[in-house]
Amino acid sequence: MTAAHARLKIGLSACFSYADPARSLFTGKTLQYVEQSIAHWLMSTGAMVVMVPCPTGETQRGDVKLSHYAEWLDGVVMHGGADVWPGSYGEEPLQEAWIGDRIRDLYDLALVEAFEQAGKPIFGVCRGLQLLNVAFGGTLYQDIETQHAGALRHRDAATYDQHFHDIEFVTGSRLARMYPGMAGARVNSIHHQGIKGLAPGFEVEAWSVPDRVPEAIRRRAVRGTGYIAATQWHPEFHKAGENTLNDTVILNDFLSACAAAKTRPARGRSMPGQLQDRGARLLRQALLQAQRLPKRFGF
Question: What would the pLDDT profile of 142-154 be if each residue is shown by its tens digit?
Fold first, then answer.
């Protein structure tokens, strides 16, 4: 059995359930949590998984920062969940239902900044892909079916993770090389937002078929830059024997990058684009002034 000190330590971004006076458990308290499947997916090859809690808010104590987690951990996975707030990429919400989660965006952006600065690998899942694209200067469709002509239905609330569509790999991409002999695959689809404008320095590795919405992205390999990749689908929801893309190859690719970064971190990079250097400052400001935000963001 591998000793704990020899195992990879992978951070997992937190989901938020905001203070609710009507909730019978933890009444009026903010909860930070992770979804079980993604933690177990990361643990399946022996990695240890640590949720990275938001360190700021009205209950804050001590001096622990996200940068401390980035220095200690070997990589981070940006969790799926709520919509990205359109303001994070310079737009106004087109509908109230698409307002997203501003506080979580600020936390996620600060977390990405911390791991980027530490030179540690970052992998995104669903919302995580969208957040990474925005963090590095890209934009999103607030609703694919509304804004993208001829779009597939990318989310079905009734079938949830049993809703599928096909993807095609981009020839010559790293993802395509990871699945030799395959032109594409079938994946789950649980999102209504998607990439509209790709962030500079990134490339699309897979498209949905036939509506061509980006389904996988990766930062171009340039000397001095760290590993960043993401999928729009949830690889952690793949089940053995299911006619969908095998998730193990993607997981091993990320964990291999984490193992390599333990000895050769790509340090000192800054996030390009409009959100550079703003994440941590805005997060602290927003959370410390939470009483001024709409009640749904209350910490």
Answer: 998 998 888 787 7
